[in-house]
Every structure is written in structure tokens, then in C-alpha cells.
Backbone:
């Protein structure tokens, strides 16, 4: 299996902050990397696909980059509705997810 | 837009079979671009991909489930289903059904999960 390691596992931030979350794959996954946002008691929601493509309807303050083994998700100007858990997912082989990063106040 | 809804028992006894159905609305389960997936999430833990099925019936599974899992599709009802046999307490989780969309990005095929159903909590307990 391809292991996905997210860091940090949690972080504290304030409204307006710039937040960066990283995801590292245990082997080269090219650009087969997606990012999801999950709020408590809700299903995950797709934010970014194919490493850097913004899903329709997702605010432009979300951006992502990376290829190979190292990827980042950035939120520029954190909004109150952005406090959530973020998951990365690789689809290069049998899909696996990172452990999640909880963004809290 | 496509919406998904899981249904099935919320309580299953150990050693028995977990069976869930996902109903797709607002779109056809026979879409050529889409597989249909099941993912689960134990309380307070991460997401685990279980497997996927195509409208033809072709399926792919996570090997970690050791042949306990079967995912099938019923195109006439626009539904797909999950069967997980010999369940234990470790199978207690929220189970999500979702669309796994495939498309060409960066010059090659890529896939992502969107949208997801709201999820159903399944507890394994006697």
C-alpha cells in the first residue's frame, strides 16, 4: 500500500491566516492526489483534484501544488467556515487517505 | 446534480453480513466516466477505501478486506450495494457511498471522489 502522511495532524489558526498543510506519499504518485474538507458529522467534500485543480464552486482562497511524493494545500485568508478536517487521498494505486489535519481556532 | 443516499441496517451482529445500498439520483449510474465507491470511517479515525464498481459490474476491492467484500450494481434501479461478511467490532464505522469520477487531466486519466452520500453509521454488536 502507498502510505500517505499528513502534517501537522492539527493546527490552531485565526481568521485571516494563511494555512499550509502537507501530504507526503511513501512512493511516487505523480499527480494522483486529491484534497477533501470534512466538517464534524458530515461527509467529505472535494476541494482539489489531480494535485492542483480547483473543484468547481470551491473558493479561490484554496490552492494546492505538488507532484511525485510531496504535496501542499494552502488556504489564503482563513474564513470561519474553513475550520474543518482536511484529508489527502492518492489514487495512483489502491486508493489511500492521509490521517487528516484538523484546523481549529 | 448527482446525489447519493445510503440505506441499510444500523446494527449488525458479529460474524454476520453487513449489507448496504446506495441510491443514486440526479444522474445515471451508467455514466461512462464514473465508478461507484464505498468508503468507511471509524469514529475519530481516518478514511478507508473499500472498493468500487462500474455499471458493467466490473469491480475493484481493497485487498485489506481479504475477500470479505462484494460490491454490485443494479442499473435498472440506479443503485449499487455493499456486502461485507464475517463482521467484527472493527467494522463499526460510518459507511459512505460516493461517485468516483474519471477524466483526463495532465494528459492522462485521473480520478477523484465527488459527490459523497451523507453516510450511515453501522455498529457491529451483539
Residues:
Amino acid at each position: 500500500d502507498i502510505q500517505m502522511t499528513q502534517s501537522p495532524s492539527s493546527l490552531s489558526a485565526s481568521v485571516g491566516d494563511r494555512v499550509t498543510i502537507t501530504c507526503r506519499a511513501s512512493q511516487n504518485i505523480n499527480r494522483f492526489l486529491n484534497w477533501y474538507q470534512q466538517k464534524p458529522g458530515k461527509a467529505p467534500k472535494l476541494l482539489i483534484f489531480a494535485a492542483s485543480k480547483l473543484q468547481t464552486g470551491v473558493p479561490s482562497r484554496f490552492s494546492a501544488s505538488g507532484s511525485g511524493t510531496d504535496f501542499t494545500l494552502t488556504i489564503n485568508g482563513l474564513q470561519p467556515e474553513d475550520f474543518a478536517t482536511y484529508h489527502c487521498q492518492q489514487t495512483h494505486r489502491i486508493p489511500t487517505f492521509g490521517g487528516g489535519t484538523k484546523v481549529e481556532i | 446534480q448527482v446525489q447519493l443516499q445510503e440505506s441499510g441496517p444500523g446494527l449488525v451482529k458479529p460474524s454476520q453480513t453487513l449489507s448496504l445500498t446506495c441510491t443514486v439520483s440526479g444522474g445515471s449510474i451508467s455514466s461512462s466516466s464514473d465508478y461507484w465507491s464505498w468508503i468507511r470511517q471509524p469514529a475519530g479515525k481516518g478514511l478507508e477505501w473499500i472498493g468500487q464498481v462500474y455499471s458493467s459490474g466490473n469491480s475493484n476491492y481493497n485487498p485489506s478486506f481479504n475477500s470479505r467484500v462484494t460490491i454490485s450494481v443494479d442499473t435498472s434501479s440506479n443503485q449499487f450495494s455493499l456486502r461485507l461478511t464475517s463482521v467484527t467490532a472493527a467494522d463499526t464505522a460510518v459507511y459512505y457511498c460516493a461517485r468516483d469520477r474519471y477524466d483526463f487531466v495532465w494528459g492522462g486519466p485521473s480520478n477523484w471522489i465527488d459527490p459523497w452520500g451523507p453516510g450511515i453509521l453501522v455498529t457491529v454488536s451483539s
Chain A has no helices and eleven strands.
